[in-house]
């Protein structure tokens, strides 16, 4: 009986310890699963926070880029507007200068035209119009009045006739060389019909 009681006690103790071990194992597993769940939640929240931070930084960078782009675009448009304004001013100045030159030219031309109309006409008793009748070309037109007359009369230039060259002969040699003689015709001096020569040339 005592042995049976002892065995029963041992069995009950074993069963109790087994239940306690199983209970502790369940508690540990539950605790472990809870920790893993919390770790996953922390990791997910951390990733979400990092993602939100990146999105926020990206948005901030994009806003800064848009602000800078808008500033650059505004500056560029202002520069283009200033450039167009300067070009318009230059074109306006050029047109005004051209108009001024045109008016000045027209004024000078009108003054010249008015003075030309008021100038006296040339007298017909001058060159090629003796006694008012034209002695120019057969078609009735006349030569223009010369603008310059040389006061010194023309004198012919005296050219002496060239001397005849003697024929050169060579001495007898093994290979005789013949030299041709060159004869120059004297220059013909044309005497003027009218005696315009004065001085010593006329006396000669």
TrEMBL record:
User: What InterPro entries does the entry give?
Assistant: CCDC34 (IPR045323), CCDC34/181 (IPR025259)
What Pfam families does the database record attribute to this sequence?
Answer: CCDC34 (PF13904)
Q: Where is this region: Disordered?
A: 1-102, 121-144
Q: Where is the Coiled-coil domain?
A: 3-154
Q: Which domain of life is it from?
A: Eukaryota
What is this protein's name? Coiled-coil domain-containing protein
């Amino acid at each position: 009986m005592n042995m049976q009681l002892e065995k029963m006690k041992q069995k009950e103790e074993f069963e109790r310890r087994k239940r306690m071990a199983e209970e502790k194992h369940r508690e540990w597993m539950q605790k472990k699963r809870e920790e893993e769940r919390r770790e996953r939640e922390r990791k997910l929240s951390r990733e979400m926070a990092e993602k939100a931070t990146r999105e926020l930084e990206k948005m901030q960078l994009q806003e800064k880029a848009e602000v800078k782009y808008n500033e650059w675009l505004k500056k560029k448009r202002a520069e283009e507007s200033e450039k167009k304004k300067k070009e318009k001013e230059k074109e306006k100045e050029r047109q005004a200068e051209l108009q001024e030159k045109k008016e000045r030219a027209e004024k000078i031309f009108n003054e010249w035209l008015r003075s030309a109309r008021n100038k006296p006409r040339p007298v017909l008793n001058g060159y090629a119009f003796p006694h008012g009748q034209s002695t120019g070309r057969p078609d009735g037109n006349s030569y223009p009045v010369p603008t310059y007359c040389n006061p010194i009369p023309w004198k012919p230039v005296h050219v002496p006739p060239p001397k005849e060259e003697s024929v050169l002969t060579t001495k007898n040699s093994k290979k005789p060389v013949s030299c041709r003689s060159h004869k120059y015709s004297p220059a013909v001096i044309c005497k003027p019909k009218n005696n315009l020569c004065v001085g010593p040339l006329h006396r000669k």
